[in-house]
Design goal:
Blueprint: H1 2-21, E1 27-30, E2 33-44, E3 55-58, E4 63-66, E5 72-77, E6 82-86, E7 93-96, E8 107-111, E9 128-130, E10 146-148, E11 155-157, H2 169-172, H3 176-186, H4 188-199, H5 201-207, H6 214-220, H7 224-233, H8 238-243, H9 246-264, H10 269-274
Parallel strand pairs: 2-8, 9-11
Antiparallel strand pairs: 1-2, 2-5, 3-4, 3-6, 6-7, 10-11
Helix pairs in contact: 3-4, 3-9, 4-5, 4-9
Length: about 280
């Protein structure tokens, strides 16, 4: 009996040691899921030259990375994740991660130039962060219809847009903001992902220079027209929608959602403060 116990103890010790030895250096264990550092290079499909500064996002874990001057990148991922690659002037792609891609070989990611170049607006002279009219009724405005708050360098856009008329209660159910409200309730992970894009310093830095809205459309399950309709319904002007960076639009959508949620529950943020 004692011999059997000794054999069992030795077996478990040997099994534990064997498992530790066979863990690759580029992997780590998080919540029982094996995360691997995916490595590779981003290049131009036609010219075959490296694309330094390409943006990578893990759409599942909301982790970002940027390729170096030689186009090389590293990003943590696991099987079934989706990696989004983008570069200004090139067609963005999404890569589904399989077990075969995680076997250690470096990948070559080829991006194609856009057939029809889309004018991506870059605004660096000032920062815009849109807010709803409900939050800015009593704040002094300047002649450019923007407000200034003491202690903050940003300027906030204000204004009023024509409200869309809904012909029936059924039609009103398909309002973009209600769609987002219901989606975040059923899929809270999507809301958490947008909040992480807004709060993570590295992701914020990447999104400040992006203007293609692709990540937002991915997480909100909307196309470009639907995203514009959502922002219009949230009282943002066409100028703001066109000129704001992806980061500013994410902040705008989250702020709109929080206000809409407060109204849905029968009270606004201001009413809560009064009580």
């Amino acid at each position: 009996m004692h011999k059997k116990i000794i054999y069992l103890v030795l077996f478990f010790i040997s099994f534990k040691s064997f498992s530790q030895i066979n863990v690759p250096k580029d992997t780590l264990e998080i919540n029982d899921e094996l995360v691997v550092t995916l490595k590779g290079q981003v290049i131009d499909h036609l010219k075959r030259n490296a694309l330094g500064g390409a943006h990578l996002f893990n759409l599942n874990s909301v982790v970002g990375a940027v390729s170096d001057d030689d186009g090389y990148f590293e990003i943590p991922t696991k099987a079934n994740d989706t990696i989004y690659f983008s570069y200004l002037g090139f067609q963005s792609i999404k890569l589904k991660i399989t077990h075969d891609l995680l076997k250690g070989n470096e990948l070559i990611i080829e991006l194609h130039e856009k057939v029809e170049e889309i004018n991506e607006v870059v605004v660096k002279s000032h920062k815009l962060i849109g807010v709803l009219e409900i939050d800015a009724k009593n704040v002094p405005k300047d002649k450019y219809a923007r407000i200034h708050i003491n202690g903050l360098t940003q300027t906030y856009e204000v204004g009023s847009r024509a409200k869309r008329n809904y012909r029936s209660p059924i039609d009103a159910l398909f309002r973009p903001i209600d769609f987002v409200y219901n989606m975040f309730g059923k899929k809270p992970k999507q809301l958490k992902k947008l909040k992480k894009l807004r709060s993570d310093d590295n992701l914020r830095a990447m999104l400040e220079g992006k203007f293609n809205r692709e990540l937002m459309m991915e997480y909100l399950n909307m196309n470009a027209q639907e995203l514009t309709e959502l922002l219009n319904e949230c009282n943002y002007s066409d100028y703001f929608i066109k000129a704001a960076s992806d980061l500013q639009l994410i902040e705008a959508v989250l702020l709109c959602y929080e206000n809409h949620k407060a109204i849905k529950r029968g009270s606004t943020i201001k009413e809560k403060v009064k009580h």
